[in-house]
Automatic annotation (TrEMBL):
<dbReference type="InterPro" id="IPR036409">
    <property type="entry name" value="Aldolase_II/adducin_N_sf"/>
</dbReference>
<dbReference type="Pfam" id="PF00596">
    <property type="entry name" value="Aldolase_II"/>
</dbReference>
<protein>
    <recommendedName>
        <fullName>Class II aldolase/adducin N-terminal domain-containing protein</fullName>
    </recommendedName>
</protein>
<dbReference type="GO" id="GO:0051015">
    <property type="term" value="F:actin filament binding"/>
</dbReference>
<dbReference type="GO" id="GO:0005856">
    <property type="term" value="C:cytoskeleton"/>
</dbReference>
<feature type="region of interest" description="Disordered">
    <location>
        <begin position="1"/>
        <end position="31"/>
    </location>
</feature>
<dbReference type="InterPro" id="IPR051017">
    <property type="entry name" value="Aldolase-II_Adducin_sf"/>
</dbReference>
<dbReference type="InterPro" id="IPR001303">
    <property type="entry name" value="Aldolase_II/adducin_N"/>
</dbReference>
<feature type="domain" description="Class II aldolase/adducin N-terminal">
    <location>
        <begin position="46"/>
        <end position="225"/>
    </location>
</feature>
<feature type="compositionally biased region" description="Gly residues">
    <location>
        <begin position="1"/>
        <end position="16"/>
    </location>
</feature>
Length: 280
């Protein structure tokens, strides 16, 4: 159950976090949906597990910290998350925890990091399907600057035109509903949050779309930092062009389709290496 954040670090879930959690859902070594298991729920597990592996491959995680979640299809109060203590290369579809919004672990064994619970629960309550919170190097580096703004200086940046919220207040660890709700209010429905002195949150209607945005966010932040390091002024694209670029990307479901193609290709790449365990 969730703690109240009253001076102690809340414990969400149960079990020995020092041991690798065992599977709480049926597993399938060939990636197929196990008998008797909802195919949509299993696919959500597979996609989220793949996302953990891909973030590890691309240096978009930090130790056993940071957290990625997805709502369980067909529910409004349940989501999947990593058990705290796993390396992201150990994540499989079957060892993800399934929690409700009261902090009860309904499938799986282990605990969820309290900051993950309070941040992600609050955002999922607004109807967001997938929430990715990372301390990826270049985006986080921008969060550590006084200006901490994503500038419209590169094509990849334009997909985030008017889509980034900025939180200049760092209150430490998110250990209760108050701070989680505050972050939601600051986001104001935008899909990306830059949190000063901390990191970023990226939201999307699917794991594929959220991951695609996070990937390109890190790429454009890297380009911006490299350009800033030259000492030259950034060459900013006009709001008119940036807005039109973003609209063109989204037209006819193009951006969502590109995200799916990108994510599917990366999952095929995982299947050629040790990351293939994400489907188990």
């Amino acid at each position: 159950m969730a703690g109240d954040g009253g001076g102690t670090y809340p414990v969400i879930g149960g079990g020995d976090a020092s041991k690798r959690p065992v599977a709480g859902a049926p597993s399938s070594s060939d990636g197929a949906c196990p008998d008797g298991y909802d195919p949509l729920v299993w696919q959500a597990r597979v996609d989220l597990a793949a996302c953990y592996h891909l973030c590890d491959q691309m240096d978009m995680n930090e130790g056993i910290c940071n957290h990625l979640t997805v709502m369980v299809p067909g529910t409004t109060d349940r989501f999947l998350c990593i058990p705290y203590g796993l390396l992201w290369t150990e994540v499989t579809a079957s060892n993800l925890l399934l929690l409700d919004d009261a902090g009860n672990v309904l499938e799986g064994e282990g605990t969820i990091d309290a900051t993950a619970f309070f941040i992600h629960k609050a955002i999922h309550k607004t109807g967001v399907t997938c929430v990715l919170h990372t301390h990826q190097p270049y985006a986080t580096a921008l969060c550590c600057t006084k200006g901490f703004r994503l500038r419209m200086c590169h094509q990849n940046s334009l997909r985030f035109f008017d889509e980034v919220a900025y939180d200049p207040v760092f209150n430490g660890l998110v250990l209760d509903d108050t701070e989680g709700d505050r972050l939601v209010a600051v986001m104001g429905g935008k899909s990306v949050l830059f949190h000063a002195n901390h990191g970023v949150i990226v939201c999307g209607p699917s794991v594929a779309e959220a991951f695609d945005d996070m990937y390109y966010l890190e790429r454009c932040c890297k380009v911006q930092i490299l350009a800033m390091s030259s000492g030259e002024d950034l060459n900013i694209v006009s709001d008119e062009v940036a807005k039109k670029f973003k609209e063109d990307c989204a037209s006819d479901g193009g951006k969502a389709n590109w995200a799916k193609l990108h994510f599917d290709a990366l999952k095929r790449g995982l299947m050629r290496g040790p990351g293939r365990i994400f489907r188990e």
